[in-house]
Each structure stands twice: as structure tokens, then as C-alpha cells.
Amino acid sequence: MVNLVINNIAVTVPEGTTILDAAKKCHIDIPNLCYLEGLNEIGACRVCVVEVEGVERLVTSCNNTVEEGMVIHTNSPKVRNARRNNVELILSQHDATCTTCVRSGNCSLQTIANDLNIIESPFKLEMPHARWTEGFPLVRDYEKCIKCMRCIQVCDHVQSLKVWDVANTGSRTNVDVSHNRRIEESDCALCGQCITHCPVGALRERDDTDKVFEALADKDKVTIVQIAPAVRAAWGEGLGLSREFATVERLAAALRRVGFDYIFDTNFTADLTIMEEGSEFLERLKNADNETFPMFTSCCPGWIRFIKTQYPDMVDQLSTAKSPQQMFGAIAKSYYAKLLNVDPSKIFSVSIMPCTAKKYEAGVPVLSDAGAGQDVDVVLTTREVERLIRSEHITVKYLDEEPLDTPLGIGSGAAVIFGATGGVMEAALRSAYFLVTGENPAPDAFKDVRGRKGWKEASFDIAGTTLKVAVASGLGNTRRLIEAIRRGEVEYHFVEIMACPGGCAGGGGQPIWDGKELAEKRAEVLYGLDQISNLRFSHENPSITKVYDEFFGSPLSHKSHELLHTDHHAWELDPTKK
Questions:
Q1: What is the CA radius of gyration of the chain?
Q2: DSSP state, 445?
Q3: What is the DSSP letter of 2?
Q4: How buried is 85 (Cβ within 10 angstroms: 0-12 exposed, 13-18 middle, 19+ buried)?
Q5: Residues 222-226: what's their mean pLDDT?
Q6: Cα–Cα distance, 257 to 270 (Å, whole number)
């Protein structure tokens, strides 16, 4: 153990502890901008500097470890002046028009500048300028970048795609798309992890709220909105609501105040996905001699973009089942339009997703099988829905819960856990067991695939057949898993992949909490909802039974293949091409 003094407080910490972490132990906050634990500990921003007695120069606290007898001052006049000067220099190359920034009120630079009482900057404003590809689902504002390098580290070391890199030299140094490419030319998966780890507003999703308001104002449009499983675990965070209070039923109440005609649950088509994907998996097992395993899940568009750019020879191993979002869009403009007796072209279909890649998916030209334009017209992230609610001046804490509409608003507990890593696999195995044996397993029989670990594997016996399955979240973990498969080191029958660490609960469209990873806490909410659900199995959802009886006939039927399945080879990767 190491003994030291921080701001006149005696502290004892393990050897190897950073000064930053030692200060946290005694509840002393040292501001920082570029630091991400275990990932970006480069001290680039120089905001976390402290004074160590006996050392002439100030030292960065994020990457210097404590030593026996150290006496540290985290906010001495020398530190305060240096920190203020460093932040003022950062602001001299930063577009500080905070009132028009999506991160206003949730920006680490804004917070630190306010804490330092910086009212005006003594330095000349010199911002970089560059053109970004209009319409791309991910937006980069060069004038807001503070060169913290977080996006580079997350994309390199967590997602393994190396989309971002340092460009230029000296005072012209900036962060840009690597290898001098335009973003649409890169291998970007559109996972959005660079957005959620940016401390400022230099990276954001394309905002599509105006398109929604325009549709809501059109009296000829029937506006339908679907709510993804993971959204219910996070939508209230930015509004200051507890997870217990911010239920999906209360979100439905808010969306009705916004003006949507029908509010449905993506859980409905998550159950439908299980029926189609599970049936497809069992068909492949029956024809195992002519199939290549594993079969991969296909509900994550970030993962689809990844496999198409990194391992195009494995695309045929994807399930052909569409994602729940796209199944819903196809059903809304076919089956539901028929139930409403309205022209499908009058339906404006909106989805609320925890994901930025879903914006890309909705725009893929071939995903228009219902014959009324794109099956999903607009995708809003969880963050955009918060802005939508705020812009309508809706005070959610005064709203009572309201039920979602039927029949597309009914979902099982199996569908809810789609939002957690391992959830799709667990839900699929629950129904696959039933489809093979005719009996339900214990609802939690396949819980071994749960957990935050980036690469999990398990084996299960179903009617005498041993199934080997794996689950990976985060594209770096995905790459390691696929490389192991290609080397012949591991063998699986079925693999679930989610592009974002922790699954959709940690998606790139979820609320941003700088320095915190909340996927696990959000997943706990989803598993809790599964536990208390009256329906634990996708095949027992009465609305699913009804849609097959009245419209599709059976899983993998001709009509199912027309509306619920897709050819991933046909997906155009450049979202700016139509």
C-alpha cells in the first residue's frame, strides 16, 4: 500500500493507483476531458494536471501513479491558472455556440469551462473547417472537435475498425476519417460508440425530428410509432426520471401527447423474429450436411455492415430474417394497413431505437417490400425522442401510464430481453426447444448466455441434440470470435452478434453519460421485465398466433419470405446512394 496526502487529506491506496483514482477515493474531483479508463489515458487535454510538492512541473493525474509520501494539491493557484489556460486554449479552437449544440447541458467541456468561471477567452478563435457528407447517419462537426482522441481509441481498440485517425500536423492537427477517405468510403459500422464516448458535440446522429413533426402535421398521414426493447430501460434518463417511473407505458402517454396516431411495441416483431429465425435455424439443422455453421443472428445492422466489409465470404451464414424494426415496418404497411382499411402509402412509420445504425437500415433501398416506399420512414434514437418530448414541453412526471395499442403492441418477456447481450439467443432457444419437443422449457433454462462478458459460449441439450452457441457484443470481440472460427479453434451451431458492447442497452443512440457504461444496469431492467411478464415465450404471444392465422400462414411461408426476410448481399452499404 502507498501512503500520500491529497489536499491535506491522508490517503492510503494500492501501489499502481493513479493520482486521479487516489483522489476519487477521498471524494476529490479532478476535472478531465480526454480520459477514458483503460482506453485513453494519454493526458492530451492537460486539464487533469495537479501539483506535486518537490516536482517543478505540473503532472497529469490520469496517467501518473502515486508514490510513497507524495503531497499533492489538486487545485492550487498554479494548478488553477494552468488548467484555466489549457481550457481557454481548447476553447480557441472550439465552436462554443452551445445553444445550438445537441450536447448543451451534457458537455464535459461546457461543465469544466463553467466551473472555471471562464466568461471570455483571451485567445483568437481559429476553428478548423471541413465538409461532411450530407445525409450520412453519423454527423461530425470539425469545429467542435477538441482532439481528445477518444473516438480513435474506441473505434480502434473496442470496435477494431480504425475509422478515425489523426490528420495533419502541428497547429493544424485534427481528427478525421482515416486514410484520407470520406466517411461513406470507410468501413464504419455506424455503431455510434464514437458518439457516446465523445465528451463534446463533435459527433452526433443525424437529427430526423423535423421529418417526424412534418408527418404529424400532415392530416393525410397515419402516424405509427414502434418502441424498441432497450429504449424502455433508458428513455427517461435524460429527463431526470427513475427507471421505475420511466415505463414504456408512460412513454406511450408522452408520444400520444406528441400526436402519434398509433403506438406499438417492437417487442411484437421481436417475437415474430424469433418465430422466423428460430424456424430457419431448425431447418438448417435438419439439412446440416449441406449447410455451413454457425448461423449468425441478423437483427443488428451495425453487425451486418461489419460482416459485409470485413468477412464478405460469410454473409450467407447470416439468418435471412429481417430485424424486428424492419419486420414491423413491413407489417405496418401491409397487414396493419389492411386492418385499418387505409392505403399503405398514407402510413408514416417511425421507429424509436437505441441505435444509430438503424437509421442506415431503414434507408436500405431493398427494405421496401410492402410496396409503399421504405418500410420504415424515419428512425429516431432514444436521445432524439428526449428532444422530441422537450420540444413539445411535455412534463412527463405528471403523465399517467397508458397502454400501447393492439394488436401490434403485445410482446413477450422473451422479446424484452432482445435489448441485452445474449437476449436474442436466449429468446430463440426458448422457442426452438418448444418447436422441437412440443413442450416449454423452464423460462430461465438458457440463462448461461447472459452477462456482460464480451464473448460467451454455452452448450445445451435439446431432445438429445447438443447445440453449441456463442454470444458476442462489441465488434472487437466479434472479430476475435470470427477469427477463432475461421482458424478452426471453435465450432458453434448458432451465434448472436451485437455491434455495441453490452448489446442494444449500450447502443450508440442511447443517452450519454460521460465516463459511465450503463448497459449492464439497463439490461437488469429488461431481465426484470421478463421475470414479471405473463408471457415468457415468443410462440405464446396471441398476437403472433393471430398474424400467422390471418396473414402469413406459418413461419417461412411464401408471404413470410416476401415480407419478413431479406437478401443481405443486396444491401447497399453507402447510405447516401439511393
A1: 25
A2: T
A3: E
A4: middle
A5: 98
A6: 26
Nearest-angstrom CA–CA distance, 552 and 324: 16
303 with 495: CB under 8 angstroms?
no
Q: pLDDT, tens digit, for every residue of 411-427?
A: 999 999 999 999 999 99
In whole angstroms, what is the distance from residue 249 CA to residue 239 CA?
Answer: 16
Q: What is the mean pLDDT of residues 512-516?
A: 94
Bridge partners, residue 351, by sequence: 226, 379
Of 56, 77, 59, 55, give the one whose Cα is nearest residue 23: 59
For the chain, the maximum distance between any two Cα atoms, rounded to a whole number of angstroms, is 81
Cα–Cα dist 290/284, whole Å:
8
Cβ atoms of 191 and 499 within 8 Å: the answer is yes
As beta bridge partners, residue 6 has: 9, 72
| Nearest to 435, CA basis, from 575, 283, 232, 246 | 283
What is the crossing angle of helices 423-437 and 266-286, to 10°? 60
Closest listed residue to residue 39, CA positions, set 142, 159, 146, 147: 159
Q: Is 193 left (phi over 0), alpha (psi -120 to 50) or beta?
A: alpha
What SS3 class is residue 473? Answer: strand
Q: Enter the C-alpha cell of residue 458.
A: 454455452
Alpha helices by DSSP H, 417-486: 423-437, 475-486
Contact 233, 507 (CB under 8 A): no
Q: In angstroms, rounded to a whole number, what is the distance separating the alpha carbons of residues 548 and 550?
A: 6
Question: Which residues, 6 or more positions from 137, have their beta carbon under 8 angstroms from its beta carbon?
Answer: 190, 205, 206, 356, 357, 359, 360, 363, 575
**pLDDT range class, residue 372, cuts 50, 70, 90:** very high
Q: What angle do CA 497, 501, 507 make, to 5 degrees?
A: 95
Q: What residue spans of 364-474 are helical by DSSP H?
A: 382-391, 413-416, 423-437
User: Which one-letter amino acid corresponds to residue 429?
Assistant: L
Answer whether 192's CB lies under 8 Å from 519's CB. Answer: no
Q: How far apart are CA 43 and CA 35, in angstroms?
A: 7
